[in-house]
Structure formats: C-alpha cells, structure tokens
C-alpha cells in the first residue's frame, strides 16, 4: 500500500469517525468501529461456526449411529470454518469492488 | 421491583406477558408482538408523512425519512453494486425494523423485541433464505461452485467443501446471536446499575443517597452508549445483509 492510499484511507476513517461521511463499511467488510465491536464480532463468528459444526456432527452421529467419530470430525471442521470466518472478516473474498 | 429481597433480577424484563389481558392471552399476543406492530406503524407513518409534502427544503420528518433512505441506499449500492438496487426495499425494511426495535426498547416501560433470539433468528433466517434463493435464481447450479474457491488444489476438496458449507451455514447464527446478545447485554447492564441505585439509595440515609449518584451517573452514560449500540447493530445487520447479497449476486 503506497503512502497516498494510506493517507486517503486514514482521511476517510477520520471523516467517518467525525460523522462527516456516512460510514460505508466497504473496506472493512462491515466491521464495527472500536476494539469492543471488533472483538465481539470475532468471537461471535468463531463460536457460531463451531456451533454449526458440532450440530451437524451430532445429527449425523445420531442418524448413522457412529457415536463420537463424526462429532469429532465436524468439531474440527467447525473450528476451521470459524477461523476462516475471521480470516474473511479481515480479508474479504477477492473481487469485491470498492 | 427488582431490588426486593436484595437480589438483582435483571432477566425478568425479557419475559413475555400477554397483551390486552384475556384477549391477548387467548391468541398468544404478547407485548413483544405489540411492539413489533408499533414499530411497523411508526416506520410506515415516518415514511408516509415524511415524504408526503415533498418539500424542496425538507422539514425535520422529511429529512429523517430521506436520510434513512439514502443511508441504506448508499450501503446497498456500495456493497452490492448498481444491480443491487432491486434488493434495496428488502434491506431497508430489515434495517428499519431492527433499528426501531432497538430504539423503542430504550424507552421507559417498552419492550425490546430484538432481545429475543427467536425474533433475531427469524430475521436472520429470512435473510439467509432470501440470499440463497437469489443466488440460486441468478446462477442456478453454478451457485455450488461458491463452496469451492477456484484455484484451490483438487486434492483439498474433501477438506475445503465441508468447511465452506459450515461457514455458509454459520451466517444466520452469527447474524442473529450478535444482535440478540448485544441487546440482552445492554439491557441487563442498565437493569443491574438501576438496581444498584435503589439498593444503595435505600441503604444508609444521607450517605446512601450520595453513593447512589455513582451508579446513576453510570446509567446515564450507559443509556447514551445503548443508543449508539442500537443504531450500530441495525447498521451491522443491514451491511451484512448487503455483503451476503453481494456474494449471492457475484458469487465471489
């Protein structure tokens, strides 16, 4: 990132912070401002993916009768998906404009 | 009252009660439903009255309606692109409903319907279904390529696809839990500090009254903070809906 872009971004952030511009959120992928907001956002993303993974694992286990194994597998997959959610939060998918 | 028996009862404010007595009880119409109807009425009134006069120099109501409109329009167009305009009514409705739910809940005696996971999850599930249907309608079966980023080695497919699917399925959960948890946490904090005011104030005469000023001041600050959170969470809900719509329209 060259210096000019950096300045433009900081100017935009400062203007947003002062309420001069409406927050667009395009660059940050919808991250709320402030460390509390970011922290909360990250926590929720991590846990929700884990919950979905565990849920899928338990349901498949009950259906197929393979008691602990699919749960363990999907626990790991859910954790990985949680990490990926957080990665996406800070590095949105390629090709997003603005 | 919450202060009775020296116990802090911060959660009873989220309990549902029948509205309008026996009539409400027979059809299971709670104060939560009543506040939803109120929010719906207020939003409709704001938009109808606000835009009725169509003044060139807007009055307060018109300025409010127009700035709300333009705010969401900017988000949708900025995130989804110009072809996202057709989804504007959807995002605007969701935003206004969440915003009014959060804001109404801060008024005295009001109920915050966004503090119930059932409500927020219903909203998030609606967003999830609409986004998925939009993606399927635009891209057909090509939509499923979303779960396997191009350029990734084929050997990793059994690993990547389940993870991507779990990540996709976690969207409505993170969307709903975020709004719900923020609202519950805020209102619990308000209630706890309000209980402190009563507890300390009724404890030890003049000294207690002086001490009660501290949690009172805290509560004043918290109300301001909660107004910020109420707006911010509605904004986050709207912008995430737009981001998901962007993914649905452009796939990646």
Automatic annotation (TrEMBL), chain A:
Residues 1-34 are annotated as: Disordered. Residues 1-20 have a biased composition (Basic and acidic residues). The keyword Manganese does not apply. Keywords: Membrane, Transmembrane, Transmembrane helix. The keyword Mitochondrion does not apply. The chain crosses the membrane at residues 42-63, 69-90. It holds the Pfam family ATPase_gene1. InterPro entries: ATPase_put. This is AtpZ/AtpI family protein. It comes from Belnapia mucosa.
TrEMBL record, chain B:
It comes from the Bacteria. The keyword Transmembrane applies. This is ATP synthase subunit a. It is found in: Cell membrane; Membrane. Key component of the proton channel; it plays a direct role in the translocation of protons across the membrane. Pfam families: ATP-synt_A. HAMAP family: ATP_synth_a_bact. It is a multi-pass membrane protein.
């Amino acid at each position: 990132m060259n210096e000019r872009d950096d300045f433009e971004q900081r100017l935009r952030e400062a203007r947003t912070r002062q309420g001069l511009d409406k927050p667009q959120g395009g660059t940050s992928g919808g991250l709320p401002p402030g460390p509390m907001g970011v922290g909360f956002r990250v926590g929720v993303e991590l846990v929700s993916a884990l919950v979905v993974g565990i849920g899928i694992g338990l349901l498949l286990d009950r259906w197929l009768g393979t008691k602990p194994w699919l749960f363990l597998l999907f626990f790991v997959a859910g954790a990985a998906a949680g990490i990926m959610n957080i990665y996406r939060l800070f590095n949105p998918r390629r090709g997003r404009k603005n | 009252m919450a202060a009775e028996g020296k116990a802090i009862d911060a959660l009873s404010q989220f309990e549902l009660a029948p509205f309008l007595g026996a009539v409400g009880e027979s059809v299971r119409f709670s104060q939560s439903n009543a506040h939803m109807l109120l929010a719906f009425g207020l939003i409709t009134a704001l938009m109808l009255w606000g835009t009725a006069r169509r003044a060139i120099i807007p009055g307060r109501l018109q300025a409010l309606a127009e700035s709300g409109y333009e705010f969401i329009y900017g988000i949708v167009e900025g995130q989804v692109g110009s072809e996202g305009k057709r989804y504007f009514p959807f995002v605007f409705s969701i935003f206004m409903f969440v915003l009014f739910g959060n804001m109404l809940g801060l008024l005295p005696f009001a109920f915050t319907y966004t503090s119930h996971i059932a409500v927020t999850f219903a909203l998030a599930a609606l967003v999830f279904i609409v986004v998925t249907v939009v993606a399927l309608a635009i891209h057909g079966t090509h939509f499923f390529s979303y779960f396997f980023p191009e350029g990734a080695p084929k050997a990793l497919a059994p690993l990547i696809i389940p993870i991507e699917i779990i990540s996709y399925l976690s969207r409505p959960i993170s969307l709903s839990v975020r709004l719900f948890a923020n609202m519950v946490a805020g209102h619990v904090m308000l209630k706890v500090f309000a209980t402190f005011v009563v507890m300390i104030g009724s404890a030890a005469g003049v000294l207690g009254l002086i001490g009660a000023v501290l949690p009172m001041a805290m509560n004043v600050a918290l109300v301001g903070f909660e107004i910020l959170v109420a707006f911010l969470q509605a904004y986050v809900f709207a912008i995430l809906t737009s981001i998901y719509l962007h993914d649905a329209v452009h796939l990646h």
